[in-house]
Design brief:
alpha+beta; Jelly Rolls; seven-stranded antiparallel beta sheet; 10 strands; about 25% strand
Length: about 300
C-alpha cells in the first residue's frame, strides 16, 4: 500500500513538473513570439522607410525637368505682350484735299476761293478769251488796267451742250478815281431800242458794286460778259464773268447750256473775294509801272 502511494505521489510530482515545464516553455514562446513580432514590425518599419526614401530622390531628379520647363512656360506669356504691343500696321487712309483753293496776290491785295478743278493763270497770262472774240477787253474808263488772275472752267464741264468756255477774271486800275470807277467804257447794249443801259448797283456778299454786261453773237459763236466794279485801297477793282458758246444748238441734238447755272457758279467765286490792305511800296511800284508801261 505504501509503495502504491509513493508511486502515485511520484506520478503526481512528475505531472506537476511536466505541467510546470510546459507552462514555462509557453511563456518563453510567447516572449519569443512577441519579440519576433517586434522585430518583424521593426523590419517592416525600416522597409517602409526604405521604400519611402527614394521619393525625395525622384523629386530631386524631376526638379530639373520642372525647372527647365519653367522658363519655357515663362516664355509663352512673354511673347503675348509683344504681339499685343506690335499690332498689324493699319492702312493709311489718303487725306482728301479740300475742294477749293485760295488765291492771294500781295501786290493787289486780292484773295478769293475757287474750285481745285478749275485752271488758274495770273499776271500777263491772265487775259481771258472767249469764242468769237480775241481777248476780252477791260472795261475801265481810263487806261492803266492790269490783269491780276483768271480762273477758267474745264472744257468738258457741260457735255452735250453748246458750252465752249467760261471764266472768272480780276483786273485792277490805280489810275481811276472813285467816281470814275462807278462807270464803264462799254455799256450794256442789250436794250431792244439799241440805247445804252446804265450800270446797276448790286451787292455781292458784303460789297457794294456797279455792274454791267455785254453780249455778242454770230452764227457760230456767242459771248456774254458781266463786269463788276468796286473801289478799295485807292484803286478800282474789276471782276469779269464770261461765258462762250458755239453754234445755236440746231443740229445733232446739242442743247443750249443753262447760262444762269454757269454764271451762278462764277458768282460764287466772286462772293469769296476779299481785298486786303496793300503796303504803300507796292502801290507806288504798281503806279510807276502803269505810267511807264513796264519800261524803265
Amino acid at each position: 500500500m505504501t509503495t502504491t502511494w509513493k508511486s502515485s505521489n511520484q506520478a503526481t510530482n512528475n505531472d506537476t513538473i511536466s505541467g510546470t515545464t510546459l507552462s514555462s516553455w509557453s511563456r518563453q514562446q510567447k516572449l519569443a513570439m512577441i519579440a519576433g513580432f517586434a522585430i518583424l514590425g521593426l523590419l517592416l518599419a525600416v522597409s517602409a522607410c526604405s521604400k519611402q526614401s527614394p521619393k525625395p530622390a525622384l523629386v530631386g531628379v524631376s526638379s530639373p525637368t520642372s525647372s527647365s520647363a519653367t522658363p519655357a512656360a515663362a516664355a509663352t506669356p512673354a511673347t503675348t505682350p509683344t504681339a499685343a504691343v506690335s499690332p498689324a500696321p493699319a492702312k493709311k487712309t489718303p487725306k482728301k484735299r479740300p475742294a477749293n483753293v485760295t488765291y492771294s496776290d500781295a501786290n493787289s491785295g486780292v484773295s478769293f476761293l475757287y474750285p481745285r478743278k478749275f485752271a488758274l493763270t495770273s499776271g500777263d497770262k491772265a487775259q481771258p478769251q472767249l469764242a468769237g472774240m480775241s481777248d476780252v477787253p477791260m472795261n475801265f474808263v481810263q487806261p492803266g488796267g492790269v490783269a491780276v488772275a483768271t480762273v477758267a472752267l474745264p472744257g468738258g464741264s457741260y457735255p452735250g451742250t453748246d458750252f465752249e468756255s467760261a471764266f472768272f477774271n480780276v483786273n485792277v486800275n490805280r489810275s481811276v478815281s472813285e467816281q470814275e470807277c462807278e462807270h464803264f467804257a462799254f455799256v450794256d447794249t442789250r436794250n431792244a431800242d439799241g440805247e445804252p443801259v446804265d450800270a446797276e448797283k448790286v451787292k455781292i456778299g458784303s460789297t457794294d458794286m456797279e455792274m454791267t454786261s455785254n453780249f455778242s453773237a454770230s452764227v457760230i459763236a456767242q459771248a456774254e460778259t458781266q463786269y463788276y466794279h468796286s473801289y478799295e485801297n485807292g484803286a478800282c477793282y474789276e471782276y469779269v464773268l464770261g461765258l462762250g458758246t458755239e453754234g445755236f444748238a440746231t443740229e445733232g441734238g446739242i442743247e443750249h447750256v443753262n447760262r444762269d447755272e454757269v454764271f451762278a457758279k462764277l458768282e460764287k467765286i466772286l462772293a469769296t473775294v476779299k481785298i486786303n490792305p496793300v503796303e504803300q511800296e507796292h502801290v507806288a511800284e504798281t503806279a510807276a509801272t502803269n505810267i511807264t508801261g513796264g519800261k524803265e
